[in-house]
Amino acid sequence: MKINGHTKIAGLIGNPIAHSLSYTLHNAALEALGIDARYLPFPSPDTSSLKNLVSMMRTSGFVGANVTIPHKENIIPLLDSIDRNAQRIGAVNTITKQLDGTLLGKNSDAEGFLLSLKNASIQYTNRNVFLIGAGGAARAVAMILAPHVASITIWNRTPAKAQKLLSELRKKGFPNNISLSFCGDPSAYPLPPKSILIQCTPLGKEDEMPPHPQLDKSHTVIDLLYQYTPLLQQSHALGAQIQDGSSMLIHQAAISFSWWFSVPPPIEIMYRSLHKQRKIV
Ligand code: NAP
Predict the structure, then answer these.
(1) Which amino acid residue places its CA nearest to atom 43 of ligand 1?
(2) Is 72 a catalytic residue?
(3) What was the pLDDT predicted at 60?
(4) Ligand 1 atom closest to 157 (CA)
(5) Which tens digits make up the pLDDT trace of 210-223?
(6) Which of 53, 108, 136, 267 has its CA 20 to 30 A from that of 251?
């Protein structure tokens, strides 16, 4: 695809972002639909670079951007408005530029996560859920699951952030009488049979095992990272049902894409590009 003076820009803001597969997904969809736009990386290691990027988005040919670790929460005060869904979650993963040039914060993580469960026929109603992490992704997962599940227990490296999320969930008062609790030491936590464990931190490199309760084959283990992480490998060996983050990645990307370009992307092409890229990586 050729770049010209009218080519629109979307991209990914965060740090680290070089490893992301979002470039592959979005650019494959843009090319397939013949849309004159590119999805590019915008590394942002700190708040001052984040502020500069937001200013740049206001003046250039940006249609919007995705926001990832570590900025999903601290982007909020830099934007002009936040829609109700992102406000409820307390995190923004998508910025859309409005016709009047203002920047609106939205969230496609929650819906993308739910679609990934539905696609894999993972039942979540009335199950017990254990979350590792309390950042933007964990917030999205907790808020979308809370009205449906029996309980949510959260561990986070910074306990105050887990407590804050739990207290926000308590204030919402869900009709299903959900039990909400904090876990200080996952290794000592007796995870009930048939629970769903959802890993929402970046801990998943070759030698990285996030703190987690003892697992068995009755559990479902979901890692939001889109690799076959050590946690997924161990869970699979125990006979547990497992899922990585690639389906969520595609679904949240597809939702963001349609917000920016007012047309749904070809999901099949996104899937194919992801699998092709994974073989190369
Ligand atoms: P975030 O808002 O910045 O939150 C990061 C979370 O990870 C926080 O709970 C943080 O704990 C924890 N964390 C970071 N480094 C850690 C470490 N060394 N040890 C223990 N905990 C650590 O980021 P996010 O958006 O929630 O993303 C979290 C992960 O999920 C990322 O790796 C991201 O790529 C992945 N993700 C995947 C998808 C998908 O579509 N598959 C979607 C969203 C996110 P503290 O609160 O203590 O800092």
Answers:
(1) 137
(2) yes
(3) 84
(4) 47
(5) 999 999 999 999 99
(6) 53
Out of 72, 171, 217, 276, pick the active-site residue. 72
* Ligand 1 atom 18: residue of nearest CA: 203
**pLDDT at residue 55, rounded to an integer:** 96
- pLDDT (average), residues 227-239: 97
pLDDT for 90 beyond 70:
yes
For ligand 1, pick from 73, 201, 248 the residue to mutate: most ligand atoms within 8 Å of CB.
Answer: 201
pLDDT for residue 34 is more than 80: yes
Distance 68 CA to ligand 1 centre (A): 9
Mutate-to-test residue for ligand 1 from 22, 47, 68, 209, highest number of ligand atoms within 8 A of CB: 68
Structure tokens at 256: 């963001």
pLDDT at 246 over 90: yes
